[in-house]
Automatic annotation (TrEMBL):
<dbReference type="InterPro" id="IPR000811">
    <property type="entry name" value="Glyco_trans_35"/>
</dbReference>
<keyword id="KW-0663">Pyridoxal phosphate</keyword>
<comment type="function">
    <text>Phosphorylase is an important allosteric enzyme in carbohydrate metabolism. Enzymes from different sources differ in their regulatory mechanisms and in their natural substrates. However, all known phosphorylases share catalytic and structural properties.</text>
</comment>
<comment type="function">
    <text>Allosteric enzyme that catalyzes the rate-limiting step in glycogen catabolism, the phosphorolytic cleavage of glycogen to produce glucose-1-phosphate, and plays a central role in maintaining cellular and organismal glucose homeostasis.</text>
</comment>
<dbReference type="InterPro" id="IPR011833">
    <property type="entry name" value="Glycg_phsphrylas"/>
</dbReference>
<keyword id="KW-0119">Carbohydrate metabolism</keyword>
<dbReference type="InterPro" id="IPR035090">
    <property type="entry name" value="Pyridoxal_P_attach_site"/>
</dbReference>
<protein>
    <recommendedName>
        <fullName>Alpha-1,4 glucan phosphorylase</fullName>
        <ecNumber>2.4.1.1</ecNumber>
    </recommendedName>
</protein>
<comment type="similarity">
    <text>Belongs to the glycogen phosphorylase family.</text>
</comment>
<keyword id="KW-0808">Transferase</keyword>
<dbReference type="Pfam" id="PF00343">
    <property type="entry name" value="Phosphorylase"/>
</dbReference>
<keyword id="KW-0328">Glycosyltransferase</keyword>
Length: 818
């Protein structure tokens, strides 16, 4: 325990007075929040954290650096209070000072430096690394604007800027002393010095990379405070623009400043698609180069030679966005540290590991040679040389396989294939669920799998069960701990101890009560925000995630349209009342997905105001789905909709968060759903639809005939026709959706899976009415959910890829003294 209540109160009041010069009761909630964060940081000696505090020995312990363009960390205050074991003390202490902790928690902005799955995964992984005592540091960009805020206006998504730094972000610490210069543009002069080719990058555009550190506090592990280092781009003040001003070239100076600041201005809101914009490449090189310079600087403090580098450093690249780590590390080793190519290459490959997060072709990053050449001329030269040597080596090994070389080369048709660079330049390539890894090996990266079979491995994703269960669902957490003790918080697999309770009626009733309570909480939120009353005893059937054609929110809303049609025709139909809840953002330029939101909100408007329905159905589109809202939604779900076209969702992580909160998955055999089914058994999940191999077969033969599906199932024909026959209003709003289904042959098999989806949904609806059987299956989902904790995933990365030790048994926060 780091504080008793009275010492906390005293420390808090003193801190507030020190910062504000007045008593806390005179301050705003924001000031009170900031004082609390500052106090915690000081108490934890966080400003000395990371490098120095964790590693005072002369010999460096192996460090893991997790490079990601996205870290969707959400709010930290409440979570850290839990991790420090002081939430109750702080809450009570503040209460005695007349302050409501909830008000302070509400002041914190969600740090939304990510789009969705990939970004949240990196936040969960930093969390587990801190918990497990792995020296693991995140490396990313401090975007001035995070993922946009979504408003729904007249049923359409409207994007507003997310100015999360407006008030200052008290968790971060600017570390100006560790600023580095990243060099863009210019040209490379080559000179032979003492018989050795030497490269000089000249006339470059210098960009200052200024680090801001955010502490990563793991549950109960106060001895290890890790760090998320986010880089901000700033112009060099007294150099180029000063020169330009002196010469009167104002426009050049202004252009330079804005070009530089643009680098860390905004997170690209495209999820799983590659826009190929120059600025994005600049972002990628910027945080890669800055992060590597920190690594090298720290390594050199503790080591005299680079020969042991790969034993002391693991660099993980989260998808291909940081793949320039490969040539940049080569550049540093060769141009700055004077290593030869072969040695530099060996160390680079042995240090870097790579995770692929999607098979969508539109997400695969390719950069035109011309852009790379002009932005990063020296890096381009190195990529060219890596490509040349790769081709040569392949030619030597497989002289007859010209096609193989062409298919796997890095530079082809004037483009740089970043996934190829990442595979060739790393020692490990992993997918994020068993099915996804299999698809990588047999389809997307199959040629590479024949060349480097030993690099490929699977690491099924995991989520922080402490954030998404312990913090998000306090009532369920209490029930669990009262029944099986608190081990599950540190050992997620201990949740299995709940399984004997599946036949304990009293326990199942308590579980149902907890769910009801959580549904009331969400219902109140909906009422407050949208002025719509939903019945907490109806089924909460929820699909929250990015809106994307392959995730098939369309299939869900067509099901709802069909149900509505049938209910109106036969009001006595035996269906249990259901509230359908959607949430998720669309990339601003993705018109098709935007029209799906409009379809959902149009149906919501119609259904929610139809008095004849007597409240049997409600449809809710919750605006601005983010980490904080997610924490309220998962605990309230009965049905978890995981209905992507089989083969397309690499893993999914929402599926795991719902499961841990006792929702039943209604899903396809896609991504990690496959493993969820294996964990819980067929009787505790509802699976429907085409299998991945069936979908892939269709793709191979050019798809299926969606027209036939439509013609042969009148209920389906009816909902599809309603998209364009004026039933939903006179505008032509949904013609694009209609076309995608019939004229473009339904690329995502929505019509093909419609019958089995609606049939399965109906069975689930019936099943829900058997309350004990339902609650028992919910409990199996919780009990089997432990394996989907990010602790398990990180242990696998640590064992198989990074080769770093971790602590398995970590005392809880209460047991540590300070
Ligand atoms: C985003 C940009 C480029 C490539 C992939 C993504 C992405 O978010 N992928 C998602 O990653 C998650 C974490 O691994 C998976 O659970 C999702 O299935 C996948 O779509």
């Amino acid at each position: 325990m780091i504080w008793l209540k009275d010492s906390f109160k005293k420390a808090y009041v003193e801190k507030f007075i020190e910062i504000q010069g007045s008593m806390p009761n005179t301050g705003t909630s924001w000031e009170k929040y900031r004082a609390l964060v500052v106090l915690i940081k000081e108490k934890m000696k966080i400003s000395q954290a990371a490098e120095s505090m964790n590693d005072s020995s002369p010999d460096q312990e192996k460090q893991v650096y997790y490079f990601s363009l996205e870290f969707l960390i959400g709010k930290l205050l409440s979570y850290y209070l839990i991790n420090l074991g002081i939430k109750d003390v702080v809450q009570e202490g503040l209460e005695e000072l007349g302050i409501d902790l909830e008000d302070l928690i509400a002041e914190e902005n969600d740090a939304a430096l990510g789009n969705g799955g990939l970004g949240r995964l990196s936040a969960c992984y930093l969390d587990s690394m801190a918990f497990l005592g792995i020296p693991g540091q995140g490396n990313g960009i401090r975007y001035k604007y995070g993922l946009f805020q979504q408003k729904i206006v007249n049923g359409f998504q409207v994007e507003l800027p997310d100015n999360w730094l407006k008030n200052e972000y008290p968790w971060e610490m600017r570390k100006s002393d560790n600023t580095v210069v990243v060099k863009f543009k210019g040209h490379v002069r080559t000179e032979s010095i003492k018989g050795k080719l030497t490269f000089f990058h000249e006339d470059y555009e210098p960009v200052l990379a200024v680090p801001y550190d955010i502490p990563m506090l793991g549950y109960g592990n106060l001895n290890r405070i890790n760090n998320l280092r986010l880089w901000s781009a700033e112009p060099i003040k007294d150099d180029l623009d000063w020169v330009s001003f002196n010469q009167g070239d104002y426009s050049k100076a202004v252009a330079y400043r804005s070009e530089v600041e643009a680098i860390s201005y905004i997170l690209y809101p495209e999820d799983s698609s590659h826009a190929g914009r120059e600025l994005r490449l600049r972002q990628e090189y910027f945080f890669t180069a800055a992060g590597l310079s920190t690594i090298i600087r720290y390594f050199k403090k503790k080591n005299n030679s680079f020969s042991g580098f790969a034993r002391k450093v693991a660099i993980h690249i989260n998808d291909t966005h940081p793949a320039l780590c490969v040539p940049e590390l080569m550049r540093i080793f060769m141009d700055e540290e004077d290593l030869g190519w072969d040695e530099a290459w060996n160390i680079t490959v042995n240090t870097i590991s790579f995770t692929n997060h999607t098979i969508l072709p539109e997400a695969l990053e390719k950069w035109p040679v011309e852009i790379m050449k002009s932005q990063c001329p020296r890096i381009y030269m190195i990529i060219e040389e890596i490509d040349r040597r790769y081709r040569e080596e392949m030619h030597h090994m497989h002289p007859e396989k010209r096609d193989l070389i062409e298919h796997t080369a890095i530079i082809r048709d004037g483009q740089i294939h970043m996934a190829h660079l990442a595979v060739i330049g790393s020692n490990s390539v992993n997918g994020v669920a068993e099915l996804h890894t299999k698809i990588l090996k047999t389809q997307v990266l199959k040629d590479f799998y024949t060349i480097y079979p030993y690099k490929f491995n699977n690491k099924t994703n995991g989520v922080s069960h402490r954030r998404f269960l312990l913090e998000a669902n306090p009532d369920l957490s209490r029930l669990i701990s009262e029944s099986i003790g608190e081990d599950w918080i540190r050992q997620s697999e201990s949740l299995e101890k709940l399984l004997p309770y599946t036949s304990d009626t009293a326990f199942l009733e308590k579980l149902a009560d907890v769910k009801y309570h959580n549904k009331c909480r969400l219902a109140n939120y909906i009422n407050d925000k949208m002025n719509i009353q939903v019945d907490p005893s109806s089924i909460f059937d929820i699909q929250v995630k990015r809106i994307h054609a392959y995730k098939r929110q369309l299939l869900n809303i067509l099901k709802i349209m069909d149900l509505y049609n049938r209910w109106r025709e036969d009001p006595s139909m035996d269906i249990y009342p259901t509230t359908f809840i959607f949430g998720g953002k669309v990339a601003p330029g993705y018109q098709y997905a935007k029209s799906i939101i409009k379809l959902i909100t149009t149906m919501a408007q119609r259904i929610n105001t139809d008095p004849a329905l007597g409240g049997k159905m409600k449809v809710i589109f919750l605006e601005n789905f983010n980490v904080s809202l997610a924490e309220m939604i998962y605990p309230a779900a009965d049905i978890s909709e995981q209905i992507s076209t089989a083969s397309q969702e690499a893993s999914g992580t929402g599926n795991m968060k719902f499961m841990l909160n006792g929702a039943i998955t209604l899903g396809t055999l896609d991504g990690a759903n496959v493993e969820i089914r294996r964990a819980v058994g067929d009787e505790n999940i509802a699976i429907f639809g085409l299998k991945a191999n069936e979908v892939m077969n269709y793709y191979q033969w050019g798809g299926y005939k969606s027209w036939e599906e439509y013609q042969n199932f009148p209920r389906l024909k009816r909902v599809v026709d309603q998209l364009v026959d004026g039933s939903l209003g006179s505008s032509n709003e949904f013609a694009g959706i209609y076309e995608s289904l019939l004229r473009d042959n339904d690329q995502y098999f929505v019509l093909k899976d419609f019958r089995s989806y609606t049939d399965t949904w109906q069975k689930v609806n019936l099943w829900y009415q058997h309350k004990l059987s339902w609650a028992s299956s919910c409990l199996v989902n919780i009990g089997k959910g432990g394996v989907f904790s990010s602790d398990r995933a990180i242990k696998e990365y640590a064992d198989d890829i990074w080769h770093v030790p971790y602590q398995n048994e970590i005392p809880g926060p209460q047991e540590q003294s300070g």
